[in-house]
Amino acid sequence: MDNVMMDRLIKNLDELVNARSGVLSSIRRDMLEAVEKAVKEVLPQNALRRYVKRTRSLLIVDKTRYNLNDFKRFVVLGAGKASIGMAEYIEKILSDKIDSGIIVAPREVASKARLEKIDVLPSTHPIPSMLGVRASEKLLEYASSIDSETLVIFLLSGGASALIPLPASPVTLEDKAQTTKLLLNCGATIDEINIVRRHLSEIKGGRLVKKLGNAKIVSLIISDVVGNKLEAIGSGPTAPDPTTFRDAYEVLKRYNLWDKIPESVRKRIEDGLNGIVDENPKPGDPIFEMVQNIIIADISDVCEAARRHLIQRNYPVRVLTRYMEGEASEIGRFLASVLKEHASRRKKTAIICGGETTVRVRGHGIGGRNQELALSASMNISGLAYSCLISVGTDGVDGPTNAAGAIVDDETYREAVEKELNPIAYLEDNNSYEFFKHVGGHVITGPTGTNVGDIVIGVYYSE
Domain 2-42+299-460: which topology? Predict the structure, then answer.
């Protein structure tokens, strides 16, 4: 039992299970354990073990073999929420070869890193800061010292966009942070946000590759982007950028932000539109001939691991989508309708969705997209006996809160009303965190050390 507890990813799993009895308690345990299995599938060391192996003087990355004797120097660089775990694995299998390296990680976990040859620089997420600028400058300074006889292993994961901000002139950090906040609050997708951020950066959109000269680069990527667009993951520091300044302009116009963003951001984009500033390097550019970009984990792995677990627990399972996007509250309402459809036929089912929703901030509360999705669903499965839904961010952090997400069932709404709470008011105020603080249902993991987006599981149990 002690070993099981030590292996728990969800710290309050038993509390959430014991909050119900009978069938609902069993459903909750099955769903929570499915989420645990799913997230563990994409922990950095588990993902890397499937794709990166070493046999004496050979480094095998997927199907590509690198003769280690062909290189005089081995360097590890990287950024992202999973960078520490990724670096630990690479350092383990290449400890006798690695010369040195730098990775940038969230400051909450950077101090806990235990690496011998790779320096860990702290930064902030989701809003960039001077801490990140200093880390980016050090990363670029280090990159400029690398030559053609070096093998660079670049470790990239979700969160890198904010962790390594290096604003391009005339944009200031404050201006870039303000633009990021506006995009986050208006409901723009992570892909759209990154289109803008790539065009305000000296390091993203393939620009890092320019700094690395003719070195061979192996970029190992844990994707948090729906559809796995290389240019969108961490804003693509080692990938060609197929988007343009025109695309960045259109994103800002689409959300009515063009007149709200700082003047320096408008000038940067206007200069790009007028050809005064060069576009980011595009697909087909010769600088990418020495780059191998490979995705080692994504939301598909999470969905598949959850599916396998629920099948073992005798649920008929359907993965509805691995491309979930849209307003969190609307997705929650839709998934509740799917459970109602199965209930109308008294058909036991489990549905799985992976992706990343957004929240259009209208109120003044505290919450995150997963909690908002779950709150919305709870209002629509109220009274639907033996129905349950869980929504969790695989990074363990949902918005500016200590929760990874939330779990709800057909009793959640009733409990709220009994406590004289108004779920609709909490939803309208974007105050999902406080709602679940009163009612119960927060899923607590702490930072997981990975990030591939969000997973949602819904269950209707017909006896």
Answer: glycerate kinase, domain 1 (3.40.1480)
